[in-house]
Amino acid sequence: MNHDKVPIRRLPSGVPGLDALLGGGLAEYSFNIIAGEPGSGKTTLAHQMMFALASPQRQALFFTVLGEPALKMLRYQQQYNFFDSAKLDDSIRFINLGEEVLSGDFDRVLARIVHEVESFDPAFVFVDSFRSVTQVAGATGQQGALQNFVQHLGILMTSWQATTFLIGEYQLHDSEANPVFTIADGILVLAQSITRNSMVRKIQVAKMRGHATIAGLHTFRITDDGIQVFPRTLPVGAHKRHANDPKVAPRPALAMGTPVLDDMLGGGLPAGYSLLVAGPSGSGKSLLSTAFLEEGARHGEKGVVAAFEIGPGQTLNPRLSKLVDDGDVGVIDTRALDLSIDETLFALTEMIKATGATRVVIDSLSGFELSLAPAFQEDFRESLHRMVAVLTGLGATVLMVTELEDRYGDLRFSPYGAAFLTDAIIVQRYVELQSELKRVIAVVKVRNKNHSHALRLYEINDGGIVIGKPLPEVSPLLTGHPRLMATLASLAGA
Amino acid sequence: MIHGALGEGSAEAADPTNVAAAAVQALTLLLAELQPLIGLLALRALYVRSLHLAQASFERPGKELESAAELLAQLHRDLVSRDPAQAWGAAVALLLALANLLVSLIGEPLTDRLLHKAWRGLPVTKSSEVKSP
Hints:
The complex is a heterodimer. By secondary structure, chain A is an alpha/beta fold. Chain A is 31% helix and 27% strand. Chain A contains 16 helices and 24 strands. Chain A has a nine-stranded mixed beta sheet with strand order 5-4-6-7-3-8-9-10-11, sandwiched between helices. In chain A, strand 19 (424-433) and strand 20 (436-446) form a beta hairpin. The longest helix of chain A has 17 residues, at 143-159. Chain A is elongated. The termini of chain A are far apart. Chain B is mainly α. The two termini of chain B are 13 Å apart. The chains are: A alpha/beta, B mainly alpha. Chain A binds chain B through residues 64, 69-72, 74-75, 78, 85, 88-89, 94-99, and chain B through 35-42, 46, 105-107, 109-110, 113, 117.
């Protein structure tokens, strides 16, 4: 084992979420490509990093080539909050290479870059758009010269201890970009896709020499503050969750806040479990979840709710509002209709970490799916699985509400196949009993735990859900038109 | 700031030769700051646009004039050929047009920084004086 390996310093990128993808930050002295189609946010990403990294002691040079004119770039980029005009000149300098590149003479381009780098001694160098350089090379039949140019540029920048970023309108499998991609230490690829009325932006670390990164596509959003990346959060240590793990067994049981329900669950819900509450509209699912959060508050446990059922202009129910006002429960903003699972998961995990919350409510999965951009609805089930694993991996107990159309004789718990993902399931149904519409509740599943299988009537009053006794004299309830057992017996005897 | 860059003279007392020299010096300094930033092509376009906006009957540069020095040499000849009040007015109008053009494109703070940096060796006043001609 080599204990004398050179340490690679990680530089904070200044882009929220990006450092997590990069395994801790940008590698110092690395030679990187920022690739992506027009409008994907390449220049914004480069500027955001530059304004975060540059200082009078560690200056940045930004070479503009033939892409976006420098005046326009300055005009638009200064709209972002990260753009700090006080850093211009002392920390950041813009240089236009248009004439050198248009000449098609790569020696001249390199000579100009060398001159500026030697004069300014920058710690960071950006070239935007580098594809203009390669296109000129292609037009003048100088692919070999381009490769030499890129090679020399890489050597020069590394020798001058400059962390470098070439920005270009490349695709990941763009053959034209091969010489550039081969030499690069790191490749960040930005992409955007439009499905129906929503646009989704994704970033990928396609290559990063010297350290591990989080693979795959990660969503990001561009706001007035610039780019924020939502890393595709993976569950930590989920594979270690087995019965013999002293960290997870035995689990304390949490009270649900609804009398009788704890007994039905076999003595409360084990902490760290995920619970699916399935029922038709008006069956009291949200009341049950509010009671779950209230019970936590009574025991000093913080909660978080992602309330997707609340539309613009609507408010939380009064009991939930009180929990929020008292600081016992945090609310995740779920108003946007182009969310990604990772964005929601990021908001949830940040709030859990900030408040120490141990009880999480997602109300409801139906609303959650509707609030997602169409592109994310396709892999909703897989993402839901990951989300539950991440949240429970953080030690939270997760209650998910799902809307269930009451189809008698069809005992389904979730349209998302979420039932098998969860550790416990409670189902609520409507039944007709003696010419009245009644509600019944049952515990369908509690993993590794004995629980009641009884169907019980329940009512909703001002205090919440009031669970009654089992109905041994009535069957079959779930058909929606049960009969008294005595009647059934007499029918059987006849 | 514009008057400061031209040497704090007055329209009546200005010698066209001095006005031309001061205007060319101010523009040389400013264009030297701008050219590395935006390139010669954009620089030439900005300058010609400023001549147009200044509405002072400036002679438009021909296509053969490619460098900033050639453009400013033509300006020098133009200003020297005018009477004192006209030379002064034309120089002020041109510098104001260029400054306001920059303000419209990259905003006052960045323009302000650029002008101060370019003209730091010249007597300057507050950038708030950079307003429409």
